[in-house]
Amino acid sequence: MPHPLLFAETPKYADAMLSRVRNARDRAEEVLARAETFGDADAREMMHRIAWDYEKLARRLEMEFGAVGKA
After folding, report:
1. C-alpha span between 37 and 58 (Å, rounded)
2. Residue 46: enclosing H or E segment and its boundaries?
3. Of 20, 21, 14, 25, which Cα lies nearest the Cα of 68?
4. Radius of gyration, alpha carbons of the chain
5. What is the pLDDT of residue 65?
6. DSSP letters along 21-40, please?
7. Model confidence over 5-52: pLDDT tens digits?
């Protein structure tokens, strides 16, 4: 069985990883935009934390992709 890191060098894998990063960032933006429609400060704060979590996910995926791509 081929080593899993070899698949990281395929364009299909790169496209999938970039798509996941974009998706996480898009969701972060959507959540932030929706947060502004909330009248309740606690709800807005919660939505901001959710958006931050999506951004952290995007950063982790970028780091993972970079580490795998350099292996």
Report:
1. 24
2. helix 41-70
3. 14
4. 16
5. 79
6. HHHHHHHHHHHHHHHTT---
7. 555 556 677 788 889 999 999 999 999 999 999 999 999 999 999 999
